[in-house]
Write a structure and sequence with these properties.
This protein is of the alpha+beta class. It has a two-stranded antiparallel ribbon. 0% of the residues are buried. The chain is built from one helix and two strands.
Length: 60
């Protein structure tokens, strides 16, 4: 994953913090972003969003 800041692309990753954290090791946990374009506002509830997201993967 990367973010663009001041015209520069900066790679980064997000993971749960642990006592044994090492930025040099890869993680098996990955964050996913799911987009629901034009979703009506009545579906902006935790239950509705998690129900739709579960079609892709189990949300946590």
């Amino acid at each position: 994953m990367s973010i663009k800041f001041a015209g520069t692309v900066i790679p980064f990753r997000i993971q749960k913090w642990t006592h044994s954290f090492s930025p040099r090791e890869e993680t098996s946990i990955a964050m996913e972003w799911i987009s629901f374009p034009s979703l009506p506002c009545q579906y902006f509830t935790r239950n509705a969003l998690f129900s739709m997201a579960s079609a892709v993967r189990q949300p946590t």
